Amino acid sequence: MIILGKRGFAGPFLAPVWTPPRLPGLYAVMVPGWRLLTFHPVHVGHATDLAYAGLLRGHEHYAEWLALAGTEWNLYVAACEMQGSSETDRQAACRELAKAPQTITIKGPSHAQL
Fold first, then answer.
1. Which residues, in sequence order, are CB contacts of 13 under 8 Å at separation 6+?
2. Which of 50, 36, 42, 35 is nearest to 82 (CA)?
C-alpha cells in the first residue's frame, strides 16, 4: 500500500499483470524512481470501472508513459477503490491530488515507497 495525498492506494502493481477491481475509483500510473522501491507518478486518473480494458493501454498518454518507463514492465499502477462514489466525487479527488505539493509520498516528495 502507498499513500497518495491523504488516500491509501493498493499497489503498486506491474501494469501488464495488474488485475484491477470492477469498482469505481482512482488510479495512479508510476515509473520506478532512482532509489530501490521508489516510484515516480506520471498520471493520476479516475474511472467508473477500474477494470475497463482500455484504462491504461487505451489512454491518450500511454505512449508517453512507455517512453518514460522504457518498457511496459517498468510501468506500475496503484488503485484507490471508491465504491459508491459519483463521477463528481472522483473528479474532486483527482483535483485534490493534482493540487497537492507532494503528489505521491511516503518518504520524500513526489515518490512513493513500499
1. 76, 77, 78
2. 50
Helices and strands, number each (H, E), in the chain: 2, 6
Q: Which residue has the higher pLDDT, 112 or 90?
A: 90
Q: How many CA atoms lie within 13 A of 25 on its CB side?
A: 20
Tens-digit pLDDT profile for residues 92-114: 998 888 776 544 434 444 445 44
Domain spans of the chain, in order of start:
2-113
What's the CA gap between 4 and 102, in Å, rounded?
Answer: 8
Q: What share of the chain is helix, strand, coil (3-state, %, to 5)?
A: 25, 35, 40
Distance CA 104, CA 114 (A): 12
Distance in angstroms (rounded) separating the CA atoms of residues 1 and 3: 7
